[in-house]
Design brief:
Elements lengths: L19 H12 L5 H11 L8 H19 L7 E5 L1 H12 L6 E5 L7 H12 L5 E8 L4 H17 L4 E8 L8 H13 L7
Parallel strand pairs: 1-2, 2-3, 3-4
Amino acid sequence: MRSILEEFILVGVPLKSEDVQDWLRKRAFDFTPTEHEATNKNWSQRFGGEVHTGGAPLFLRTLKEELIPYIESKYRVTSDRGLAGYSSGGLFAAYVWLNDGDTFSRYLIGSSGDWGGMFLKTEAALAKSGKALHGRVFISVGADEDEGMVRAFKNLTTAITSHAYPDLQLETHIFESTDHLSGVPGTLSRGLKFLYALPQPKQ
């Protein structure tokens, strides 16, 4: 069987938790870019315990200073790294891409939302300063998701496209008849094909 994707090493970061609610609380901290008091209160009620947001910078530092050096010391890897995330994980991937574009070169960002418009503002500031977004990036959302999620996707992808970054390879996609939970398989399949597809011989 002919391979359709480049070889890559898939690295997952485990999250030790006592139960699902504890997992949600820790995930809420690790993947959110800034602390937001109203969200802390809302999610504390939803997740059954105290929630703090704003841990994404710390999580990124952990990846850069601990995980990546460890992987490089144990496995045959290059500096061509990818970062994939969905939902809150997508929020983290988008944060990393827009704020630290050098650690990873490929990004899969699924149904991320825009954390109060932060990403749109960051992209606008980058464009105004003359700094260019780069990398190979796949961004998606489900058509049947929350209206705010779809709107955030459209606003951000429209802004990025309008600035025509020369070193950016971007694919965006809205999955029809798909909500937040059902969007995972299509996002991973289409996203990985875009990010890692090998050239296929003509039939």
